[in-house]
Design brief:
This protein is an all-alpha fold. The protein has a single domain (13-173, 180-240), classed as CDP-alcohol phosphotransferase transmembrane (TM) domain (Four Helix Bundle (Hemerythrin (Met), subunit A)). The chain is built from nine helices and no strands. It has helices at 13-21, 32-52, 56-76, 81-107, 113-141, 150-173, 186-191, 197-202, 210-240. The longest helix is centred in the last third of the chain and has 31 residues, at 210-240. It is globular, with a radius of gyration of 19 Å. The two termini are 26 Å apart.
Length: 242
């Protein structure tokens, strides 16, 4: 989500929330989780940020802070039910704030190149940081063959490739023709669920049980490998036609 460094602006919560309702992005290419859970949560957080006068960039940094806190808890705290819930809460809140910064920027008049850059840097760091935290957690607290440690390393690679590939498509396409618009697809929105970061965060609710967590995390990796191949192939074909 885009952010920028616009000036603070106090406002009424209801008025901000209503204004944000008119500043939503399209839903094409967005999973059901982001469409019906993360964006509405981000809208509420953006309205609150507008009321207290936070800038979009400050919301971006707040998103990063919650993500770092969740990753630190994941890597350093001994697995338990409480730890699992706190990890999920921090990561999910960081994701909702990642939606809030862009929504806040839009009602403040749009994002800036610096804010967009900051947002992408934070997103890129998040893609690697959480999987590195899983790697540390498995090494410290889960008895397993060393080969099991390759799972979070592979997941970090897959997540980075999908994020980078999707981010580069509109940048590369700027010198060519825009892709023909397509209608929203519920099937596509369902199919994208395993690749949604918010859905990924849910696996950490299993963190209290070392084997359930590893199985759930590994299954998500397997599905994301398939989705990565499909998405990279799709983007390559689209760019080949420009």
């Amino acid at each position: 989500m885009w952010a920028h460094g616009g000036g603070a602006r106090g406002s009424d919560l209801g008025a901000s929330f209503a204004a944000l309702g008119e500043a939503q992005k399209g839903s094409r290419g967005v999973s059901l989780y982001s469409r019906y859970i993360n964006r509405p949560s981000g809208r509420l957080l953006a309205a609150a940020a507008d009321v207290v006068g936070l800038t979009p960039n400050q919301v971006t940094l707040l998103s990063a802070a919650f993500t770092v806190a969740g990753a630190a808890l994941l890597a350093l705290a001994r697995p338990s039910v409480t730890q699992s819930v706190l990890v999920w809460l921090c990561l999910a809140l960081g994701f909702a704030l990642d939606s809030a910064d862009g929504q806040l920027a839009r009602i403040r008049g749009g994002g800036t190149p610096a804010g967009q850059w900051l947002d992408h840097v934070v997103d890129a760091g998040k893609m690697v940081l959480v999987h590195l935290a899983v790697l540390v957690r498995l090494y410290r607290y889960t008895p397993m063959n060393d080969a099991g440690l390759l799972v979070p390393m592979a997941f970090a690679l897959v997540s980075t490739l999908v994020f980078t590939g999707g981010t580069l498509v509109p940048l590369v396409r700027r010198g060519g023709h825009e892709a023909a618009p397509r209608p929203d697809s519920t099937i596509a929105a369902i199919g994208l669920l395993p690749a949604d970061y918010g859905v990924f965060c849910l696996v950490f609710l299993l963190g209290w049980h070392e084997h359930l967590f590893f199985v759930g995390y590994s299954l998500l990796l397997a599905v994301n490998v398939v989705l990565m191949c499909l998405l990279l192939g799709k983007w390559f074909r689209e760019l080949s036609r420009t």
